[in-house]
Amino acid sequence: MANLWRIIDVLQWTAEYFKNKGIENPRLDAEVLISHALGIDRLGLYLNYDRPLDEEERSRIREYVKRRALREPVHYIIGKREFWSLEFDVAPSVLIPRPETEVLVENVRDRIIARSYSTVVDIGTGSGAIAVALAHEIPSIKVVATDLSFEAVLLAGRNAVKHGVKERIDFVVMNLMEGFGHKARFDVIVSNPPYISDKEFKSLPPEVRDYEPATALLGGGPDGLDTIRRLMREAWRFLKPGGMLCFEIGFGQSEAVLRYAAGIKEYTERAIIKDYAGIPRVVCLERG
């Protein structure tokens, strides 16, 4: 880059560079990374488009561009991701929250409010996005958030502090529900479990396959549903009568999940909720 590159010059160069690298949203990624490097919002890039960049700023931008060119996700580079209109810290120890998971939060929120539920468990909390969003939305609930990763639990705890809900969420390191006593009972168990098959994993974009934690993606078995089957088998034991198990699923998995759930007599009601693209995305099972 030349000595007197302006913001607009660097923005245009970076967008073109990302495009040539096959990055899906080259202009948007360039805007996000450069605005983060400069400590301004994306609008500020255009309000200050003619401003020259100093060497420190150019160096910081070069580092971000280099990382993105290697297909590292933008949100790991900037260390944050918006979810449910809240900003969450993210890191390679946790899955980056997806917009489709807001469908899960929305439906669980509505069920909690409609039935005056008060106790919630979030299995595989990751960044804490689901647990924090629900606690932030509904001040009356108490949440237990679990994850197998100690690093994830620490990060989720920081996100709970950031959004003022730490006092109502207990974070616990455990695999699924293995640490709960046999008398533990909750109104709602919610989860965005791993559900990617080994075959599908190989064809994922490099941003996901090479950077996000495989334990948060790979569901086990040829169809990726081993973890979900175990969740369905075990969750009813920790639900109060009338309690709900709600979890996210992947594309094309709804029929197999409902068939399996139909064989567990403790679940008396079963529902599938579609996402905004019309894809079955959330399963809710009610314990009788």
Blueprint of the fold:
Blueprint: H1 7-20, H2 26-38, H3 42-47, H4 55-69, H5 74-78, E1 80-83, E2 86-89, H6 101-115, E3 119-123, H7 129-137, E4 142-147, H8 150-162, E5 169-173, E6 186-191, H9 198-202, H10 206-209, H11 226-235, E7 239-248, H12 254-262, E8 267-274, E9 280-287
Helix pairs in contact: 1-2, 2-4, 6-7
Can you give a write-up of this model?
Keywords: Methyltransferase, S-adenosyl-L-methionine, Transferase. Methylates the class 1 translation termination release factors RF1/PrfA and RF2/PrfB on the glutamine residue of the universally conserved GGQ motif. The mean pLDDT is 94. 37% of the residues are buried. By secondary structure, this protein is α/β, with parallel strands linked by helices. A hairpin with a 2-residue loop joins strand 1 and strand 2. The chain contains twelve helices and nine strands. A seven-stranded mixed sheet has the order 5-4-3-6-7-9-8, sandwiched between helices. Strands 1-2 form a two-stranded antiparallel ribbon.
